[in-house]
Design brief:
The chain is mainly beta. It is 5% helix and 35% strand. The chain has a four-stranded antiparallel sheet with strand order 2-11-6-8, with no helix packed on it. The N and C termini lie far apart (39 Å). The relative contact order is 0.26. GO terms for molecular function: dUTP diphosphatase activity. It catalyses: dUTP + H2O = dUMP + diphosphate + H(+).
Length: 143
Amino acid sequence: MKIRIINKSKHALPKYQTAHSAGMDLYANIDQGFTLSALERKLVPTGLFIELPEGYEAQIRPRSGLAIKNGITVLNSPGTIDADYRGEIGVILVNLSKDDFTVNDGDRIAQMIIAKHESAVWEEVTEINETERGEGGFGSTKI
């Protein structure tokens, strides 16, 4: 699939790190590094602008290495970039650790996955089919 992209960053285009990777790494595109204190969050620019085909979204997800090693994750994860959005891709990073964390220009800060989606059309009814689970909520399945 070809996706049109404008790269106003100082860095290479997002790329898959292995042949079977689902996500492409996104890089911080900042003039100077900054520190995220414990529980602090910041919108980090990437310098990328994309044109997705209708019926697709780009999902912005955390990088597992940053999460396990440093407690750095992406808020509202996965973030969604809709096909009609034309602004710069930004990544909302948060520091969930007790230690300061420095983000530098060019750091791999998140991953982006391109995913197909459907658009729902609601059919309003007065009842829906019963299931074995029924109204059981969080933690109600007995597997």
